[in-house]
Amino acid sequence: MCPLLKPTAIVTGAAQGIGKAIACKLAGQGARIMAVDQNAPKGIAFAAEMVSAGLDVKFVQADVGKTAEVSAVISIVEREYGQLDWIINNAGFGSRKPFDDIEVSEFERILAVNLKAAFLFAKFGVHLLRQSSGAAIVNISSTRALMSEAGDEAYAASKAGLLGLTHALANSLGPRIRVNAVCPGWIDVSDHPQQLRPEDHAQHPAGRVGTPGDVASITAFLLSPDAAFITGQSFVVDGGMTKKMVYLD
Length: 249
What we know:
seven-stranded parallel sheet, 249 residues, alpha/beta, 7 helices, 7 strands
């Protein structure tokens, strides 16, 4: 598979954190980015920052949990670029609280943003992806898909659902479109990493808490021709934290 000359990518949840790092990484490698986020002020500021650096980034505000708004994003991409090569489904949120306090509406909302949105982007964008010579989707899941804490039902269910959706889409859309997932562990998305304690880093065999750039790097790899034989897979990026035994005294 030859490298795409100038790929076009949708990155959701791109105004901050992991999504922003992914958008920066791909734009820096020459991709055209449609950054999608519900936070308009941050999204506009991010796109302006990228453009001033000579990178091709545009921003569109959208609530990815709503079907009509996802469809509208795809229409904008088709009108602006006439092509779509990559979709990175990163937008998501969670709320951990006692099980008895979880509202049904809250559970449904988390699943809509974290899980249904990934299906919608594939559904509405597939006609463009099928025209690409290097089409790929990366779903940003979580280690919470594999392990969890009490009160984590909505977030864990949505992120586990992404793993199932990933291998189902890989079968349905292949061989033309590859689909993979990344499961980040503890990623420090704060503006003040110095607030982390030595014991926070010590929980990781890699010796540190992760950064958004760690997730961006594997995402860029999974989109690249170097990953042409990889599809339907999920990759844990957690510094080894989920493989470390913990004993309480």
